Amino acid sequence: MNGEKADKLLDILKVTVDFLKRKGVEEPRLNAELMLCEVLNYDRLSLYINFDRPLTNREKEKYKELIIRRINKEPLQYILGKVNFFGYNFIVNKNVLIPRPETEYLIEKSLSEIKNDKLNKFDILEIGTGSGCISISLSKEMDKSNLNYKITAIDSSKSAVELALKNSELNNIKDDKVIFQVKDIFDDDINFDSYNIIISNPPYVSYQEYRCLPEEIRLFEPPNALTDFEDGLKYYRRILNLLSQNDRKCICLLEIGYNQKTELEKLLSLYRLQNYKFELDLNKQFRYLIIHK
């Protein structure tokens, strides 16, 4: 980092923050602190309790490796190999989408809909589970309310399902409560007959938009988890079609793109789904679609 000499923890941290700032890394202090925590196996408070502690050469080298990865646009979550979502810890890697804060609201809306329903048992299907963060968080929260439920979480990626299983174990999820399966929503044998709740944050970025995404996203996160390689509506067409064919009472909760409301209204009309509402995110953009069937 420009040959600046620093040995003590606090000095190294200051030099790193300045370096990341010059390289255009957003939230340089948070990034510098969390990467140093990873190297030292500290929490952030411990950094300041031990601010006068010198780093060994091995620790410096390991820290430098992480910094290089970060300035090369690799997301911090992949560097650390973990993320907190809805208050729970999850392992993440290049095989799954990094959970976003806006998706936490999808959990909140799901729980709100569930608590307003008087069903004896909730049979839930999650489409495109990725890291498993939605199903696992939902399971943990439903357990707190002593609800009777079973969640089936599917993903077409075997690598994603393998990671979701690791996250399930990490969060002490009971095997009979959440089942993870390698399955494609476009398979012919898929239907919604066994479920009364459908939840999904599908790949909704159009291919045209995908090509313009920041390098930090486009070069590292799995394309199949971001885009449908078409107009961004492929998964919604499939989900809404299946929902229209389901005779069972059902609630469907979807995260959507900020600019998709108008096109989705056309699809809802096409599939004769009339009982629905769009919800705003914290940025006052339509980000969620809730359908009652």
Structural commentary:
The protein has 13 helices and nine strands. The strands form two sheets. Strands 5-4-3-6-7-9-8 form a seven-stranded mixed sheet, with helices on one face. β8 and β9 form a beta hairpin. It folds into two domains: 9-72; 85-292, 3-Layer(aba) Sandwich (Rossmann fold), CATH 3.40.50.150. By secondary structure, it is α/β, with parallel strands linked by helices. The N and C termini lie far apart (58 Å).
Write the layout of secondary structure elements.
Elements: H1 9-22, H2 28-40, H3 44-49, H4 57-71, H5 76-80, E1 82-85, E2 88-91, H6 101-116, E3 122-127, H7 133-144, E4 149-155, H8 158-170, E5 178-182, E6 197-200, H9 207-210, H10 215-218, H11 223-226, H12 234-245, E7 251-255, H13 261-270, E8 276-280, E9 286-292
Helix pairs in contact: 1-2, 2-4, 6-7
Model regions low in confidence, pLDDT < 50 over at least 5 residues: none
Kindly report the CATH topology of the largest domain.
Rossmann fold
> Beta fraction of the residues?
15-25%
| Inertia-based shape | elongated
Looking across the biggest beta sheet, what order are the strands in? 5-4-3-6-7-9-8
Question: What CATH architecture of the largest domain do you see?
Answer: 3-Layer(aba) Sandwich
How many DSSP helices?
13
What is the count of structural domains?
Answer: 2
Q: Roughly how many Å is the radius of gyration?
A: 21 Å
Helix content: 40-55%
Q: Superfamily at the CATH H level of the largest domain?
A: Vaccinia Virus protein VP39
The largest pleated sheet is described as: 7 strands, mixed
Instruction: Tell me the span between the first and last alpha carbons.
Output: 58 Å
